[in-house]
Amino acid sequence: MLFHSILFYVFAAIMFGAALGVVFSRNPVHSVMLLVLTFFNAAVLWLMAEAEFLAIVLVLVYVGAVMVLFLFVVMMLDVNVEAAKRGLTRYAPFGIAIALLMVVELMQLIWLRSQVGDTVGGFVPNPEGYSNTKALGSVLYTEHVYAFEIAAVILLLAIIAAITLTMRKRPGLKVQNIAKQVGVRAKDRIRVVKMDAEKKS
């Protein structure tokens, strides 16, 4: 179907342009918003290829994790949060424009799927009862199990490194001393003070 192919290339072009914007944008907030748009367009392309599981994972994991990544960047760069909140209205039009673009793309995709039904032009339709989640899991945990485990270890190291970078010494930071808490004695917990009775005037 010609319209299906046109939409595919339009979404791919938007994703490519948004990815370039992430790299070349000087504003970190704009880069994050463009990265969200890039992930969303990639998820739309997965939906057009009838890989619903990959599309949902891309939106839930990556688009959700982008905000956490941005928080890590703010924590590591010591950005003034109050000043960022005051300047939040500057980024509102840009964010609204990206959100509207995502809504328009999603509406076009829903309309396309409702029109073509099971006969999707450009891609071979899946047989009835086919589960791409089951097919993906069977390939991932058999043929590519070592690569999957290595990727998990690398992600774990990245999480530990991010936590280590953010847990630096700050003035007034209260640290819990587990050894001191466990080794405390009962008589050190309570101190009984004997006071003389006060005389009524």
Explain how this protein is built:
This protein is mainly α and 201 residues long. The protein has two domains: 1-127, Four Helix Bundle (Hemerythrin (Met), subunit A) (Up-down Bundle), CATH 1.20.120; 131-170. Helix content is 70%, strand content 0%. It has helices at residues 2-24, 28-48, 52-77, 81-86, 92-116, 132-140, 145-166, 178-182, 186-189. α2 (28-48) packs parallel to α5 (92-116). The longest helix is centred in the N-terminal third of the chain and has 26 residues, at 52-77. The protein is elongated and about 100 Å long. The chain starts with a helix and ends in a 12-residue tail after the last helix. The model has no long low-confidence stretch (mean pLDDT 75).
